[in-house]
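Morning, I've got a small favour to ask if you have a moment. I'm working through a protein record and want to make sense of it properly. The fold is given in discrete form, as structure tokens running alongside the sequence. Can you walk me through what the tokens say about the fold? Thanks so much in advance, here it is:
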Amino acid sequence: MSTQQNTPDSLPSSSSSPSAASARPSRITLVAALTAVEGVALVAGGIYMLVMGLLGHPESPQQAEMGGLTLIALGVIPLVAARGLLLRRSWSRGPALITQIMGLPVAWTLLRSHGVLIPTGILLAAMVLTSLYQLLRPTTIEELGIRRPGTTTPDA
């Protein structure tokens, strides 16, 4: 075991992420955190549906189990996207955007319901709109190393 600490001087200088020398921008960390929260919520809902389908008494156990597995699979997508955003991978923006776009109708449905679902809809709408705004900003696109159409690389 080494007693050497990971200071900026002791870290390797080569990395596969863009702008490795600079710190990760807070906007990317924010979007990754919001996307991860959405992924965890989907996985938790899927596990609940799956357990209730197996142990509970739903009208259709097969539907409950399949719904649970579907939610778990859908929850993995934003979790992987959040990890990619934290690592500043350009591919992660697409799944994160799709997750946020899918959250818009869910938030709208919650907002049009009643009771405790309305504050949940407000929270989800705020998370989705914040994430969409940050993901669509030109500075975020640049920081993820995504080239705009019509631009050429310096070595081309």
Notes: The mean pLDDT is 86. The CA atoms of residues 84 and 91 lie 7 Å apart.
